[in-house]
UniProtKB/TrEMBL annotation:
Organism classification: Bacteria, Bacillati, Actinomycetota, Actinomycetes, Micrococcales
Similarity comment text for this entry: Belongs to the NnrD/CARKD family.
Entry's cofactor comment: Binds 1 potassium ion per subunit.
Binding site for K(+): N61, D131, S169
Keyword Acetylation: no
SUPFAM superfamilies xrefs: Ribokinase-like, YjeF N-terminal domain-like
Organism: Cellulomonas dongxiuzhuiae
Domain YjeF C-terminal residues, every copy: 229-497
Encoding gene (name): nnrD
Protein name: Bifunctional NAD(P)H-hydrate repair enzyme
Length: 500
């Protein structure tokens, strides 16, 4: 599992080490220089003779960058530091000067006297740019001279390799927002532990590949945001024991689809069956289509351990909406986990337990929050997915899985996940219906655990997102997929993950 820690936790872990005189900045800059040198070697074949530009802000992030620049200069790199502030890290600047690095300033006064031209020339000639404007001390997007530097580098053609120091400057460190100027990086070299912005959308898209440098911090306690990796899935998966029978494995009740959208029912059932479930009971108006596609399904009422409701339930299908409402009410009251998607999100009772899991996309989450009196539009959710998923969890009590290219999951007790497992090709009609089925199957298999441990539904939701994303990759590596392809790839993906 990948963990991330917010700025306060990182500072708290740094403090005793700094007091004890541990050279954290030296460790950070040494690791940074090593990663930059490796990237230069990969790109140009050698390190010596490369040209590097350092964007240097006023804090310790700029200090890391200056020290790394000094190390690179000693390896034969022509290093130019551009100071975006009149106040920069003194030791770092001295180290760079001692290593014969060049220093340019770009505060407002200097720019009026024409310093901008040499800065532009240095950026235009650079093989690599190190973004050391802001680290965990940044508040809001990069301002002032730094913002002009960001624009200059972003417009450079050919584009140099951009390495973010600790994290891309100007992103919301703890919430993953991107409010102003941010320089998109190819590589981020982060120190001590991942920061939430490196996992959370939209900021995570600015980070590129992320490399972690161990500087000896002891980050303990719960992480701010986690990301499941393949090897985490087996511990969560309801792998059947030798003597289990189909009812023991879990029966999933599915109330999805409608006369208008029978495909949603077929796909949500496909997702569940191919993930592995004892039985699916289907209730609804698309029974003929579901049975034609999946003869193993049983139609009608009966005991179930978990539910999937809502995908493809049309607003004018009163009968199907009433079945979805009943399932939702029954599941909330009777310890049966419920996945609530699309057409049932507006049927949600005022408060529900965390074993009710909402699976909206950004537009649906905005509508859900607006219906509860919040002034929110889709664009707001896209700009701050974590904050809005959290708000929906607080207002409803439900576990919230917010779908997106990076899926954000929020549950009780701070359980927070950001999963970026699927290819962009997965943004296709019906993929969400399959995801609902995957999660439903997991919940049916672990229904009593998911009720007893309020944080477990969030972990299962993250696991569902991981498996769904992996299935899209497996269905057609690097190319287009349909929702049916994704469902078809599920058994092999699950098999590979639980055997590993
Ligand atoms: N502690 C250690 O030993 C270690 C720390 N490490 C490194 O230190 C980094 C954290 O350093 P940091 O705390 O100095 O903050 P940092 O992010 O460099 O910038 C703060 C400065 O920026 C300014 N500023 C703020 N917002 C702004 C904006 N939007 N636009 C423009 N300016 C803005 C702000 O100004 P102020 O608002 O205070 O006037 C302040 O002067 C961390 O990410 C890691 O790289 C590693 O070496 C490991 C060891
Ligand atoms: K930075």
């Amino acid at each position: 599992m990948l963990h991330s820690w917010d700025a306060a936790a990182v500072r708290a872990a740094e403090e005793p080490l700094l007091t004890a005189g541990v050279p954290l900045m030296a460790r950070a800059s040494f690791g940074l220089a090593a990663h930059v040198a490796r990237a230069l070697r990969d790109r140009r074949g050698r390190v010596g003779g490369a040209r590097a530009v350092l964007l240097v802000g006023s804090g310790n992030n700029g200090g890391d960058t200056l020290h790394a620049g000094a190390l690179l200069a000693r390896r034969g790199v022509a290093v130019t530091a551009v100071l975006a502030s009149g106040r920069v890290h003194g030791d770092g600047l001295a180290a760079l000067r001692a290593a014969h690095g060049r220093v340019l300033t770009l505060d407002d006064a200097c720019e009026r006297h024409g310093v901008a031209a040499p800065v532009a020339a240095a950026v235009a000639a650079a093989d690599v740019v190190l973004d050391g404007l802001l680290g965990i001390g940044g508040r809001g997007g990069v301002r002032g001279a730094g913002a002009r530097l960001v624009d200059l580098v972003a417009a450079a053609d050919p584009r140099p390799l951009v390495v973010a120091v600790d994290l891309p400057s100007g992103v919301g460190v703890d919430d993953g927002t991107r409010t102003g100027a941010v320089l998109d990086a190819d590589l981020t070299v982060t120190f001590g532990g991942h920061k939430p912005a490196l996992l959370l959308p939209p900021a995570s898209a600015a980070a590129g590949r992320v490399e972690l440098v161990d500087i000896g911090l002891r980050l303990t306690g719960a992480p701010a945001v986690a990301r499941l990796e393949d090897h985490d899935v087996v511990a969560l998966w309801p792998v059947p024991g030798r003597d289990v029978h189909k009812y023991g494995r879990g029966v999933l009740g599915v109330v999805t689809g409608s006369g208008h959208y029978p495909g949603a029912a077929v796909l949500s059932v496909a997702g569940a069956l191919r993930t592995g479930v004892g039985m699916v009971r289907y209730r609804g108006s698309a029974g003929a289509q579901v049975l034609a596609a999946h003869p193993e399904v049983v139609e009608g009422d009966g005991r179930v351990q978990a539910w999937v409701v809502g995908s493809g339930v049309a607003p004018d299908d009163a009968e199907q909406r009433s079945r979805a409402r009943d399932a939702l009410a029954h599941g909330s009251r009777h310890d049966e986990p419920v996945v609530v998607d699309a057409g049932a999100l507006d049927l949600l009772p005022e408060r529900v337990p965390p074993h009710v899991i909402l699976t909206p996309h950004a537009g649906e989450l905005a509508a859900l929050l607006a219906a509860r009196g919040e002034r929110v539009e889709r664009a707001d959710v896209e700009a701050g997915p974590l904050a809005h998923a959290r708000r929906a969890h607080e207002l409803t009590g439900a576990t919230v899985l917010l779908k997106g290219s990076t899926t954000v999951v929020v549950g009780p007790h701070g359980a927070t996940y950001a999963q970026a497992d699927g290819p962009a090709w997965l943004a296709t009609a019906g993929a969400g219906d399959v995801l609902g089925g995957v999660l439903g199957a997991l919940l049916a298999g672990r229904a009593s655990d998911a009720v007893a441990d309020p944080a477990l539904p969030a972990a299962l939701a993250a696991a569902a997102a991981l498996v769904h994303g992996r299935a899209a990759h497996r269905a057609n590596p690097g190319g287009p997929v349909t929702a049916s392809d994704v469902a078809a790839a599920l058994p092999a993906v699950v098999g590979a993950l639980v055997r590993a």
